[in-house]
């Protein structure tokens, strides 16, 4: 069975959930081979084994994480050469897609981006145009490179004892052209990452001010979820832009999405339409968000949302 | 400084976006074409860099005839001239092929800086900046929310999930920008009038030295197998708040095991 390379997403040695999803998917497609880049593997190896990595390629050289994206693509290109994998899976995050792009050029391969599932023959399923159309696509040249949307696949543990192989790659000058001189971690508290969170609570125009976003944060915290915002809210400066859910922001696909004071314009729907369960609170009964919901309350968010937060706390 | 800004015309998100049944490519006739929103930030950033450091801003668009509308808008915002790569042979090209075609045109125009939006609102692949940097062998300064240039040094803040990375490089470079890096200007009346007289060079693939065997739907490295409209979501329950709306949602969430 051919190896399926999975580029591990990690922040300082902590494996991101999307990697466990990719390993789960890779098990269906072939023999999962995780590719670890950078320091910190020792602290993460148990996690990769738990989710069924049959092999781990470890490229521990810190230099590989000192430049933007290119070294990861160089390493993967080398592994594509030496291991002839059936496919390469990366997360469909900004960086994951960029690795895919460079790898595609290096190997002359096609890329599928933002895939929500992969069937036999490496046929990828895409949800496009804001979820309006489901399309299936495949790679016709080279080694399929597939960027998978976080939260699209349910991660399942399948303990394995991976073989470890230390690997290294010689970087070209071009690979070292964009040097990361500083990593700035902005305070996000204890909340999960927006794109990885199982529960997302988002606020929109109806929230009315930056101060009022506390209502959204309180509800998200009661549920252990992430906070998102519509474009109207980020444009108004009520919440930082990196939390914007929508066509020009993040695409999320959580188990539960709660839209508070969001009308549900197409621009927003494009970023959340594939959420499994959708709940909305809005004072306008005609708001298009109600076309998507599993449960909706027409009412004043300043009454309904705090009451919901209190009720959740009571039930804990 | 020779700044090339990549501009794509995309179907308006507000109009019906469809794929054509015969070849699964975008039905450009079904929707109004508009400038890709994130490209407006790229144009603005290019103009600001020119205003601070001098030089010239060239708009580069690959797309059908009607993409001229988007080119004119970019010129009206203040770009100096444009190159329009238009050829039937390019139709249906995927990201890998598009990056090749644009690389060829950039070989003609030359560049110190290529600026583009981080993704388009139609295909949303977010691949082009990385592919171009790889092909051109120049620094990839992508997902930038801040750009600073000092002589031939360039520093950007690269947006990440945890905050940002500060990235340094030397020109020439490819920069992709995210939303909110700036506030794109509206074209002034004067700008709109001036745009009509600005030069737009139209190139076919032969003019740009593009190999016909490497572009177009038939030669793409990816293929759409099939597509269908997504099944509509089943209609949910909608209630009007009568003082217990929050409790009712909590009950719903409990029934779904979220609380």
UniProtKB/TrEMBL annotation, chain A:
FAD binds at residues 205, 230-231, 244-248, 261-268, 282. Transmembrane segments: none annotated. Keywords: Electron transport, FAD, Flavoprotein, Transport. GO terms for biological process: fatty acid beta-oxidation using acyl-CoA dehydrogenase. GO terms for molecular function: electron transfer activity; flavin adenine dinucleotide binding. Residues 4-184 form the Electron transfer flavoprotein alpha/beta-subunit N-terminal domain. Its cofactor is FAD. PANTHER family: ELECTRON TRANSFER FLAVOPROTEIN ALPHA, ELECTRON TRANSFER FLAVOPROTEIN SUBUNIT ALPHA, MITOCHONDRIAL. Heterodimer of an alpha and a beta subunit. Belongs to the ETF alpha-subunit/FixB family. This is Electron transfer flavoprotein subunit alpha. It comes from Actinomadura rubrobrunea.
TrEMBL record, chain B:
This is Electron transfer flavoprotein subunit beta. CDD domains: ETF_beta. Coiled coil: none annotated. It comes from Actinomadura rubrobrunea. It holds the Pfam family ETF. The electron transfer flavoprotein serves as a specific electron acceptor for other dehydrogenases. It transfers the electrons to the main respiratory chain via ETF-ubiquinone oxidoreductase (ETF dehydrogenase). InterPro entries: ETF_a/b_N (IPR014730), ETF_b (IPR012255), ETF_beta_N (IPR033948), Rossmann-like_a/b/a_fold (IPR014729). SMART domains: ETF. Its cofactor is FAD. SUPFAM superfamilies: Adenine nucleotide alpha hydrolases-like. GO terms for molecular function: electron transfer activity. Heterodimer of an alpha and a beta subunit. Residues 23-212 form the Electron transfer flavoprotein alpha/beta-subunit N-terminal domain. Belongs to the ETF beta-subunit/FixA family. One of its GO terms (cellular component) is cytosol. Keywords: Electron transport, Transport.
């Amino acid at each position: 069975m051919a190896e399926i390379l999975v580029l591990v997403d990690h922040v300082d040695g902590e494996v991101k959930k999307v990697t466990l999803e990719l390993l789960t998917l890779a098990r269906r497609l072939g023999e999962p081979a995780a590719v670890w880049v950078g320091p910190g593997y020792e602290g993460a190896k148990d996690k990769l084994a738990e989710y069924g990595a049959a092999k781990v390629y470890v490229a521990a050289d810190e230099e590989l994480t000192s430049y933007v994206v290119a070294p990861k693509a160089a390493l993967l290109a080398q592994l594509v050469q030496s291991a002839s994998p059936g496919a390469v899976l990366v997360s469909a995050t900004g960086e994951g897609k960029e690795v895919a792009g460079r790898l595609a050029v290096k190997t002359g391969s096609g890329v599928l981006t933002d895939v929500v599932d992969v069937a036999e023959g490496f046929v990828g399923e895409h949800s496009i145009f804001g979820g309006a159309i489901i399309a299936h696509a495949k790679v016709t040249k080279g080694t399929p490179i597939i960027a998978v949307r976080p939260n699209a696949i349910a991660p399942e543990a399948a303990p394995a004892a991976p073989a470890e192989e230390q690997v290294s790659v010689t970087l070209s000058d071009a690979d070292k052209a964009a040097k990361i001189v500083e990593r700035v971690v902005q305070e996000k508290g204890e909340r999960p990452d927006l794109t990885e969170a199982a529960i997302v609570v988002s606020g929109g125009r109806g929230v009315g001010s930056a101060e009022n976003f506390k209502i959204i944060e309180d509800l998200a915290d009661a549920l252990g979820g992430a906070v998102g915002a519509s474009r109207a809210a980020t444009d108004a400066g009520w919440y930082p832009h990196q939390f914007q859910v929508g066509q020009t922001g993040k695409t999320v696909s959580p188990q539960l999405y709660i839209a508070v004071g969001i009308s549900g314009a197409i621009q927003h729907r494009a970023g959340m339409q594939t959420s499994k369960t959708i709940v909305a609170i809005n004072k306008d009964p005609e708001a298009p968000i109600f076309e998507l919901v599993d449960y909706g309350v027409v009412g004043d968010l300043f009454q309904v949302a705090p009451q919901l937060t209190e009720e959740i706390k009571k039930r804990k | 400084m020779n700044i090339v800004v990549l501009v794509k015309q995309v179907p308006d998100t507000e109009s019906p976006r469809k794929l054509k049944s015969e070849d699964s490519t975008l039905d450009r006739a079904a929707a109004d074409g508009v400038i890709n929103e994130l490209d407006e930030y790229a144009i603005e950033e290019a103009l600001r860099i020119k205003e601070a450091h001098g030089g010239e801003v060239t708009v580069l668009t690959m797309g059908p005839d009607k993409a001229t509308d988007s080119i004119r808008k970019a010129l009206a915002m203040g770009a100096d001239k444009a190159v329009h790569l238009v050829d039937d042979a390019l139709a249906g090209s995927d990201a890998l092929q598009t990056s090749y075609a644009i690389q060829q045109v950039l070989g003609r125009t030359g560049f110190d800086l290529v600026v583009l939006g981080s993704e388009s609102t139609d295909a949303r692949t977010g691949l082009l900046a990385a592919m171009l940097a790889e092909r051109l062998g120049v620094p990839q300064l992508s997902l930038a929310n801040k750009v600073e240039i000092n002589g031939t040094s360039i520093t950007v803040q690269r947006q990440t999930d945890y905050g940002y990375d500060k990235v340094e490089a030397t020109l020439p470079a490819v920069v992709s920008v995210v939303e909110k890096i700036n506030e794109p200007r509206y074209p002034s009346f004067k700008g709109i009038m001036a745009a009509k007289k600005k030069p737009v060079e139209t190139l076919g693939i032969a003019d740009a030295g593009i190999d016909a065997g490497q572009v177009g739907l038939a030669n793409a490295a990816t293929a759409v197998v099939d597509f269908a409209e997504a099944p509509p979501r089943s209609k949910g329950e909608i209630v009007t708040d009568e003082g217990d709306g929050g409790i009712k949602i909590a009950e719903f969430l409990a029934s779904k095991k979220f609380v």
